[in-house]
Design a protein that fits this description.
By secondary structure, the protein is an alpha/beta fold. It has seven helices and seven strands; from the N terminus they run E-H-E-H-E-H-H-H-E-E-H-E-H-E.
Length: 239
Amino acid sequence: MKFIHTLGLRGRVTDLVVDTKSRGCGVGTALAKYALELARDLGIYKVSMACVDSLVTFAEGSGFPKDVGNNVMSQQFEFYHGDEEPSCYFKPGSTELFRNEILHQEDLLNLEAPPNISIRPLHVDDWDKGYLSLLGQLTVVGNVSKTDFEERTKEIVASGTLYVDKHGCEHCGHFEDLVVDADFRRMRLGRYLCLYFRKMAYLLGLHRIVLECRDELLGWYESFGYKRAANLMTYKFDM
């Protein structure tokens, strides 16, 4: 669940594979269409998949139109074992989104932040500090009450999200919702957050980090080591 689109649910179709002996029989298309209907039944506002150029026609025929101008970018890390499982940093029932200890590691502290800027976990009190207004500069937020926010210091001027999923025995990170307040965009906060989240993903022991970006930002993200990996195919449901 995300704080955008009125606490909307975002879906991804991954690891879609059909045995070579059964290809050409419509099994892959049936699976993709089934995933769309399942997403619709679950109330998901958008479902997407990453797709290499050679499979764009297949994805479009399965109900996933190409999200023109959007790309999937990926960065692989050298194999690294974090000291703890990534899940140990999350705090169910806490007033903060995750344990602050990960931010105190030396490699993160060595990344020099812009003046008067500090990095911390999202807190339940941030509903009163402009967090949703900041997200509104990125996308549609919708009506999110303070109670909704809580169930799920100072002014918030930038935000980013790193969430982790598990593929086999490895963890993959998704870097999303990077936004900097319009009044602070000359402080290179976006650059700082990109470096910060990349280092944080590495320290968590993730084997890869993935993001979605517009064509005009490909070069900017490539400067941080990301490479274009696929097309973004997206289906948005009528809400």
